[in-house]
Amino acid sequence: MKLTIFDLDNTILRGDSDYSWIQFLIEKEIVDVKKYKDKNDYFFNQYNQGTLDIYEYSSFAIGSFIEIGKEKISVIFEEYLSSVIEPMINVYALRLIHEHYENNDELLLASATNKILVDIIAKRLDFKNVIATIPETVGGELTGRIIKPAALGEGKLKLVREWMLENNFINFDGTTFYSDSINDLPLLCAVEKAVGVNPDSKLRHECISRGWEIIDLP
Questions:
Q1: What is the C-alpha separation between 64 and 144, in angstroms, rounded?
Q2: Known catalytic residue at 7
Q3: pTM above 0.85?
């Protein structure tokens, strides 16, 4: 069985789930609008430049869950999934996913976004295997911190390696990874087949120089 790995944001989704979560909270005025907007824009620019401090950002995003509270969060998640994520799903990316399902590949969703959001989206996309940034909990309560490593860059590669060993994938032979982002370069370099999906400018340059496939989805 071959392993196929998909990034989530700007690969399967036509946008960023983390950023869109905060934007959703801002538009609904569920959180302090100015405070969250300034910070969300700041971190989003960092991500696009490849300089994101994932630990600082994850603490910010997870802080929104803590601020909202367990009593309200499930209803808000449902609206976020239906009104924000559903329209962001790229049907052309879904076709790629289904092609690999039909080939009986093992599919893994690997995202730098926190696992709380990724698990919700993964269920909608029918991914059973998920790698994501894991929020720390103590006594069943979120602390606002994350468990290292975060699933970004070298951290994503490390977490994928650990998952592979636990699931009887000895090496990256026959493994494919689809991603849009230069932040995923370590994992893209490790797999047998790296594919840039609507790649950012830095990743597009890498794809061209390394002879990697580029897919520009509508």
A1: 9
A2: yes
A3: yes
Contact 45, 17 (CB under 8 A): no
Return the domain boundaries, the chain: 3-215
Q: Return the structure tokens found at 75.
A: 């209803």
Return left, alpha or beta for 144; rule: phi > 0 is left, psi -120 to 50 is alpha, else beta: left
pLDDT at 45 over 90: no
Tokens, residue 194: 């790296």
List the catalytic residue out of 9, 16, 184, 200. 9
DSSP label at 182? G
> Of how many residues is the chain composed?
218
Q: For this structure, is 200 an active site residue? A: no
Helix H or strand E encompassing 114:
strand 106-114
State whether CATH 3.30.70.360 applies to domain 3-215: no
Q: Model confidence over 74-102: pLDDT tens digits?
A: 999 999 999 999 999 999 999 999 999 99
